[in-house]
Design brief:
By secondary structure, this protein is mostly helical. It contains 9 helices and no strands. The longest helix has 27 residues, at about 70-95.
Length: about 190
Amino acid sequence: MEISDEALCERVARRDDEALATLVARYQERAYRLAWSILRDAEEARDLSQDAFVRVWEAAGSFRGQAKFSTWFYRILVNLCLDHRRRQRWWRRLVGGSGPDSDSSEALVEKLPAPDPGPGAELGKDEMMQRVWAAVGRLSPQQRAAVVLHVQEELPTREIAAVLRCSEATVRVHLHRAVAALRQSVGRG
């Protein structure tokens, strides 16, 4: 029988390296995808998703089990990513440079680690997925996080609200606005 994430987190609080390694194995890919969806930079996503595991190691004793481990972990990761973006924005204003927040959507969109339609997929479907992910890249960080948590991680609104530390109504607004923006952007194609 598989050990629950919550039980593993309790073991991490007691400094069990093996329990942390198990959590990393379970969440590493999802953590990277979520961080990348917010940051749109592969190296930063890798760094911050790893930082989130360091935070788990440091703060596992504060996990009280009032939410699922995944909700607690995603909250740590999203906060790290949003804080990082705020620091970047401040730095760009200070030095007057450009970056991911500039208007160049082409600079934002790399080859996405998005779901691969597979080798037999039609070219049109592949192009549509690229357009959709490019449009996701133009959403606000909170909207991107809400979309990724809802679509890729299949979290309910209640858990997304806990991760983003906002109300369920705010999550629904983020999702509604994101869907409207995606429809408009992809429809223009």
